[in-house]
Amino acid sequence: MFVDRVRVHLRAGHGGAGVVSFQKLRGKPKGKAIGGSGGRGGAIILRADPSMATLLTYKRNPHHEAGGGTHGQGDLRSGRQGDDLVLSVPLGTVIRDDEGVVVADLVEAHQQVTVLEGGRGGRGNAALVSRVHRAPNFCEQGEYGEGAWFEFELKLLADAALVGFPNAGKSTLISRVSAARPKIADYPFTTLEPNLGVVSIADREFVFADIPGLIEGAAAGKGLGHEFLRHVERARALVILLDPSPLQTENLLRQYDVLIDELARHSVELAERPRVIAVNKGDLPDVAHEADALESAIEKPVYAISAITGAGLEPLLHAVADAVDLAVREAPEREGFVLHRPVRSGFEVYRDGDVWVIEGRVAERAVGLDDLTKPEAADYAAARLARIGVDDALREAGAEPGDEVRIGDLVFEFEETE
Fold first, then answer.
1. Which of 109, 209, 305, 416 would suit a FRET pair with 95, their CA atoms being 20 to 30 Å apart?
2. 375 or 344: which carries more pLDDT confidence?
């Protein structure tokens, strides 16, 4: 089963919590802080794997989560970091976030992108010692790992793509010139999924893709071809395969115009790729004459072939190899990319009914302590919020003493501080 588009939910690992622990010492009633910090949660990493050909595994299992960090312990023992989760995807996979932004386009073997960072581990009380807090009786909680939906879309990496109407003989041709064994039958839309084959001619090789048949209106969603037009996008060259049989109601020139028009509607740049035109089923009467007439009409070479008998295939394959070589020389390498997104601002303030809401990881970290009912911990969190500018931002937004403020699940009253 060929799966080329899936929606998956990924979650980074949660960070482990810090711990409060003391070493009792003579003359020091509180003792020495020796609580260890929690381990960071694992990240989600996507890596291009040449051995994968489909996204079927993610269709079957769309939910994946990285390992969580463990909690800190006494005696300054830190928690273990969570294991990163490395997910393999086929070469040519485009990664989009839930807003449709392309995060990465992985076309090179082992190219990878980190899509979600693991939650930070909370610091133990030993890491929170300062001049003000010499023996803190509080620690930080670990951060939750971020979760988000992503779309994986596979676009095949082929040197040349076969484009034609249903029953033009594309599957027969690719089975004749390569080891690919697609399904072949005498009814429309035999090919329901793309097929790849490696073609060797003389001392050259190229990857051939058999794309499901296109019909007029495919770019607008008609037929099956529109689902697979995107697989043609990466092809260096196109092979336009025409059908001269009596069952095909359109003449060769009309077929050619329709196919080029559908490619242009999908992508103008795609229609301008190097192309080779071939007329299949050369064993039928008058095909050579029709091919010559088409060649005169479009002023481009047209190859009359027979995928069944093999007639005319060698000149066609040499022409395809030449077109691929030309595209390689004239076009830049098909490099993938990874989007480096700007660091999000620390926090934002907005009103939700009668409550002021503070959103942002830096604000959540400021109050992410184990027990805010402890006066010392509450004072520490308040000082953190003031230091990062939350108090000033609330005043500028119009907050007044006594107003409710929410950060995550925590709700408290806004108070003026000295």
1. 209
2. 375
Distance of CA 200 to the CA centre of its chain: 32
Domain that holds residue 123: 5-155
Residues 19 and 132 in one domain: yes
User: How far, in Å, CA of 227 to CA of 402, rounded?
Assistant: 57
Q: Are strands 112-116 and 44-48 parallel, antiparallel or unpaired?
A: antiparallel
Tell me how far apart the alpha carbons of residues 20 and 129 are, in angstroms, rounded to a whole number: 12
Query: Taking a C-beta distance cutoff of 8 angstroms, is the pair 279, 244 a contact?
Result: yes
What CATH number corresponds to the domain at position 267?
3.40.50.300
Angstrom distances, CA of residue 68 to CA of 19, 40, 84, 158: 16, 7, 9, 39
Residue 313 CA to residue 306 CA, distance in Å, equals 7
> Do 116 and 206 sit in the same domain of this protein?
no
Do 107 and 166 lie in a common domain? Answer: no
Task: Judge contact between 279 and 253, C-beta under 8 A.
Answer: no
Task: Give residue-wise pLDDT tens across range 25-72.
Answer: 777 667 889 999 999 999 999 999 988 877 888 989 999 999 999 999
Domain boundary among 155, 186, 217: 155
- The domain that contains 46 carries what CATH number? 2.70.210.12
Strand residues in 26-142 grouped as ranges (E): 28-33, 44-48, 63-65, 85-89, 93-97, 102-106, 112-116
Beta bridge mates, 152: 6, 95
236-258 per-position pLDDT tens digit: 899 999 988 887 777 899 989 98
Q: How far apart are CA 10 and CA 206, in angstroms?
A: 36
d(CA 33, CA 133): 10
Task: Give a yes or no: residue 342 inside a domain.
Answer: no
Residue 185 backbone phi and psi in degrees, to 5: -155, 175
What is the 8-class DSSP label of residue 27?
T
pLDDT (tens digit per residue) in 94-124: 999 998 888 898 988 899 999 999 999 999 9
Check whether residue 94 and residue 12 sit in a common domain.
Answer: yes
Q: Are 178 and 198 in contact (CB under 8 A)?
A: yes
Q: Are residues 179 and 287 in the same domain?
A: yes
Q: Considering its fold, how many domains does the chain have in total?
A: 3
Shared-domain flag, residues 11 and 51? yes
